[in-house]
Amino acid sequence: MDLTSITAQWAPRMLSVLRIVSALIFMAHGTQKILGFPPSAMNPPLLSLSGIAGLLELVGGALLVVGLFSRPVAFILSGQMAFAYFIAHAPKSFFPALNGGDAAILFCFVFLYIAFAGPGPWSLDAQRGRRTY
User: Fold this and answer.
1) Residue 1 has pLDDT above 80, yes or no
2) How many helical (H) and strand (E) elements, i.e. helices and strands, does the chain have?
3) Which residues cross the membrane (predicted)?
């Protein structure tokens, strides 16, 4: 078996791995804002921009971890991260390395990719019989 056939065989599975790992890391931002874990100084009111962002991170992240409604959820979360970047990070500096927006940019484009590519075979969407990858 050559490298091309191995990578072609594993590409859909690695899409699932990308979705799961990205969603778990993203969800941690929501647990921090909403559940206070891991502990941080940030404890936003639920009906503030940060509180709503935390809810999206927590619920949307959980949906992406299991791969349920993956395309619309990923699209919404991609938009949330674009919004977060321009509201919270870009005003601090033009350069992402200086404004702390690196993660927001990466999440935005990873989720946008998932919105178009689908969740991969290891997802509830795939188990429900909808070929979305």
Assistant:
1) no
2) 7, 0
3) 46-66, 73-91, 103-124
Q: Which two tokens stand for residue 69?
A: 């409604």
Rounded distance, CA 89 to CA 96, Å? 8
Window from 5-9, 16-20, 60-64, 128-132 with minimum mean pLDDT? 128-132
- Name every residue whose Cβ is closer than 8 Å to that of residue 18 and which is 6 or more positions away in sequence: 110, 114, 120
pLDDT in tens, 39-80: 988 889 999 999 999 999 999 999 999 999 999 999 999 999
For residue 113, give both structure tokens: 């990719």
Residues 6+ apart with CB under 8 A from 60: 26, 30, 73, 76, 77, 80
Cis peptide before 45 (omega within 30 of 0): no
Contact between 16 and 122 under an 8 Å Cβ cutoff? The reply is yes
Q: How far apart are CA 15 and CA 11, in angstroms?
A: 6
Handedness of CA 72, 75, 79, 84 (dihedral sign): positive
Distance (Å, whole) CA 3 – CA 9 = 10
